[in-house]
Specification:
Order of helices and strands: HHHHHEEEEEEHEEEEEEH
Radius of gyration: 31 Å
Number of strands: 12
Distance between the termini: 45 Å
Helix content: 25-40%
Number of helices: 7
Length: 279
């Protein structure tokens, strides 16, 4: 197969030979590896890291000059692009074999890949990190893995599996559902939190009380943990209230919003919803 001839990505298991998916996966690995080698030796564009020339200066001590460009050692941990590209085909191959016994998948890969070669050895090293094998079922029915590889099950350090894993009872390759990301969690918290005050700057804000929007003037009061108990007058509750430690914003004056100010409140609320939707 030529380097510029990309293999087909038909990795569906169960059609034809049982090694069809593994062979397609190997063809794609070889294509990506060959493309990386061809790009490194066949490009006519001068490499910025190694394209510079040193001007010869008589009597200069060239031992002090760097022998390599900065950043060369950290370029993909010394493996280059051809080794980093194998993760995509490997992930697609595992996706196409979900629900199959893991020992069959692993056996097919061992038949098609040679662990004695650098490419095969590197793929199996990535496979150990991509597929969690040491799993067990917790009391709540969730699949957990032993985080620190200790022999005791049920430790507080154990966590729920992520990504690919082998089910502890069936031995089938499974994929854990994606967890809620920090962005999704912030979005949910922002939408769930009721908006009672919209800051405007210059110690001014819009604040809602009993369904009515007011334009209020605020005063910033900082209470330290060593300070005595601090109280302030609440113009909405019409009584004194205790302040918490840290920063407190207390409304000192209020005025019910007119039509123009209510339109601005609506615009600010819509902007907040757009901000939450963009997370």
């Amino acid at each position: 197969m030529r380097i510029n001839e990309k293999p087909s990505r038909q990795l569906a298991a169960g059609t034809g030979s049982p090694l069809l998916g593994a062979r397609s996966f190997i063809d794609e690995i070889r294509y990506e590896e060959g493309r990386g080698r061809a790009a490194s030796r066949g490009s006519r564009i001068r490499n910025e890291k190694f394209g510079a020339r040193l001007r010869y200066i008589p009597g200069h001590d060239y031992d002090e000059q760097p022998k390599k460009a900065k950043g060369f050692e950290s370029f993909h941990d010394g493996f280059g692009k051809s080794f980093t590209d194998v993760l995509g085909p490997l992930s697609r191959y595992l996706h196409s074999n979900l629900g199959r016994p893991w020992h069959k998948i692993y056996s097919e890969m061992c038949v098609s890949l040679d662990k004695r070669k650098a490419t095969g050895r590197h793929i199996f090293e990535h496979l150990e990190h991509m597929v969690e094998l040491d799993c067990y079922l917790g009391d709540d029915g969730k699949v957990l893995y032993k985080q620190y590889r200790h022999p005791w099950y049920g430790s507080a350090n154990d966590q729920q599996v992520r990504g690919f894993y082998v089910h502890p009872r069936t031995g089938l390759l499974c994929l854990a559902p994606r967890r809620e990301t920090n962005r999704q969690r912030r979005r949910k918290e922002m939408l769930a939190k009721p908006m009672t005050r919209l800051m405007l700057g210059n110690n001014m804000a819009y604040q809602i009380h009993e369904g009515v929007w007011y334009k209020v003037k605020l005063m910033r009061i900082v209470v330290g943990y060593k300070d005595p108990v601090t109280v302030a007058y609440d113009i909405f509750l019409k009584r004194k209230v205790y302040l918490n430690w840290g920063e407190n914003w207390v409304a000192t004056h209020k005025k019910q919003c007119n039509r123009r100010e209510l339109a601005e409140v609506q615009r600010l609320l819509e902007g907040r919803q757009k901000e939450a939707a963009s997370l």
